[in-house]
Amino acid sequence: MNKNINLNADLGESFGAWSMGDDESLLDIVASANIACGFHAGDPLVMRRTVAAAKKRGVSIGAHPAFPDLQGFGRRRMDIPAAELEAMIIYQIGALKAMAAAEGSCVSHVKPHGALSNMACADPALADCVARAVHAISPQLILLAPAYSRLATAGERIGLPVILEIFADRAYQDDGQLMPRSQPGAMIHGTDAALAHVLRMLDEQAIVSVNGKRLPTRVQSICVHGDNPEAVATASDLRRGIEAADYSIVSLDRL
Question: What is the domain-level CATH number for residue 138?
């Protein structure tokens, strides 16, 4: 029996003369794209081109808002008042919605990036702030949130459709949070290792930590980070392996 699953990637992270990742190749593999909105990466031209490339392939489009941290690629922790941060998130989603409208497309989901996501996964107040910002634009926007997170709970509580994701290329701590990138073993390298990591969590419908702890959860989407040098190979092998396990890859709005 076929089972539906989503495969997504963080894209549109080039900026000016600086190029990041192979978006064109990844868009041929994934079903949903989380597009940077200019605060951690991306710029207006990159945003519009990425939207157009996603639309051409039938890949669903999502906003990837972040802390205002171009220098740190959105991976540095920031302490921003809730009202200001909520406005920043609305601003970024709105910018991508305008680019999508200009290309005759639409934004179907929102996925916070980097430190904003990691902090919202653990901090209920910050999670509520993110959920409020998304809901303020449209209660129909899908919140793509890490499984076993405060962010997912906040989205469900406010009434957003929530899709739970796992990460193919990241290791988990025993509390279900991602291992900090500064720690050894935080990144999973090699396509075989990434596929085994994902299939184990799909089979068990649980996050499996580095210590073998299992945290039961629905698994609806799988993320590959577009800035990873192995991203295209990982995404390609993941798709083949997941489909061989009798899953069908679909966009978030078809789950």
Answer: 3.20.20.370
Which two three-digit tokens encode residue 85? 């941060």
3-class state of residue 43 by DSSP: coil
What percentage of the chain exceeds 70 in pLDDT?
99
Contact 221, 144 (CB under 8 A): yes
DSSP string, 124-166: HHHHHHHHHHHHHH-TTSEEEEETT-HHHHHHHHHT--EEEEE
Residue range(s) defining the domain that contains residue 147: 3-254
What letter does residue 254 receive in the DSSP assignment? G
By the 8 A CB rule, do 41 and 34 touch? no
- List alpha helices for 12-43, DSSP H: 23-27
Tell me the C-alpha distance between 181 and 204, whole Å: 25
Pick the closest to residue 6 from 230, 229, 218, 149 (CA basis): 218
Number of domains in the chain: 1
Q: What's the pLDDT score for residue 229?
A: 84
Residues 253, 31 contacting (CB under 8 angstroms): no
pLDDT in tens, 112-121: 999 999 999 9
Q: Per residue in 199-237, pLDDT tens? A: 999 999 999 999 999 999 999 999 998 888 889 999 999
The angle formed by the CA atoms of residues 169, 170 and 175, to the nearest 5 degrees, is 150
Among the listed residues 22, 50, 46, 47, the one whose alpha carbon sits nearest the alpha carbon of residue 234: 22
| CA 187/CA 224 separation, integer angstroms | 11
Using the 8-state DSSP alphabet, how is residue 76 labeled?
Answer: S
